Amino acid sequence: MMKFELIAPCHFGLEAVLKKEIIDLGYDITESVDGRITFAGDADAVCRANICLRTAERILIKVGSFHAETFEDLYQGVKSLPWEEFIPERGKFWVKKASSVKSKLFSPSDIQSIVKKAIVERMKQSYRTDWFKEDAESYPIRVFLMKDEVTVALDTTGDSLHKRGYRKLESKAPIAENLAAALIMLTPWRGDRILVDPFCGSGTIPIEAAMMAANIAPGMNRNFTSESWTHIITPSNWQDVRDEAKDEIITDVDTDIQGYDLDPEMVEIARINAKKAGVDHMIHFQARDIADLSHRKKYGFIITNPPYGERIGEQNELPKLYKTIGQRYKELDAWSMYLITGFEQAEKYLGLKATKNRKIYNGMIKTYFYQFMGPKPPKRNGTTQ
After folding, report:
1. Is a pLDDT exceeding 60 seen at residue 384?
2. 198's torsion region: left (phi>0), alpha (psi -120 to 50) or beta?
3. Domain 4-155 maps to which CATH number in 3.40.50.720, 3.30.565.10, 3.30.2130.30, 3.50.50.60?
4. C-beta neighbour count of 236 within 10 angstroms
5. Which architecture characterizes domain 177-216+250-374 according to CATH?
6. pLDDT above 70 covers what percent of the chain?
7. Residue 17 to residue 224: CA distance in whole angstroms
8. Predicted structure pTM score
9. Virtual CA dihedral for 315, 198, 222, 363, nearest 10 degrees?
């Protein structure tokens, strides 16, 4: 079986979470840089990473890397790579995305054009032809330049891994599924603890939490570009991993997960999405104002993505909103709160000092993950709950 260097991009600031996920799957990390984790694996690893990783954006097969300061360097470097080992003669290939950071070559369109030309020339020599139909399977290519170091890779995923397949309807400013999962994984929350999202929108945070509690692999119910690459990854590779993931689902998990939103229409959308994800029976959704947030039990968790002024007209409303969040949280008995926001004055208006504060980039938006840690519950049956 072929061995690969696999690259998993992620949100900036969440590399450690993704790294732990990969290690937990049983694979060795070979490199960790901002926004990207590289690890070693085979065809099964491609399947397992795509189906099971909750916080990655996609899975790439690294074709090669080299130094390039000129377009001639780029051309020759790409041409020297063994493209014929990956792309069949009739495969459709194109440079899906090129990015450049602190490099002499910085024009994405020029980089894309040169890389495509170099691959064509390499394949002309390998297949002894001057023309390619490109009417078969798709092989999207991604190119990264960092300080004149070029990495070229094949995208095995297709649509980003945050697209689990359950969110057919969404709110105006939804949090990405992989980011929601990462935020939950940055907390001590476990499936037997209370979780409330008072700004649930289309339900992403509660749904991701329920899937984690039931051990439902996030990519079980979607397809991937590389499923058609049968000369590299066989259908049995995919089926074995899907069967394995299905066997690991916990069907009788007992949870207390709740999602609230002021808009009844969004609550209904959240219910539809939860049903699509197969976890509607695990979550209680309700139309409810943050001002009415309460819970009679102790040691619960708030994990939420409240508004933070990304839409026109919201900024003036934020001080009052965050003051209300702080007041309601203080009324809860021994709870913890984890809140992601781009609102710079969040702590001031919450009236709270965060135990920890982590910077995370939500796309191009700089946000902060404020962590207000309550006391741990007493031990039960010899373990901390």
Report:
1. no
2. alpha
3. 3.30.2130.30
4. 12
5. 3-Layer(aba) Sandwich (3.40)
6. 96
7. 23
8. 0.94
9. 30
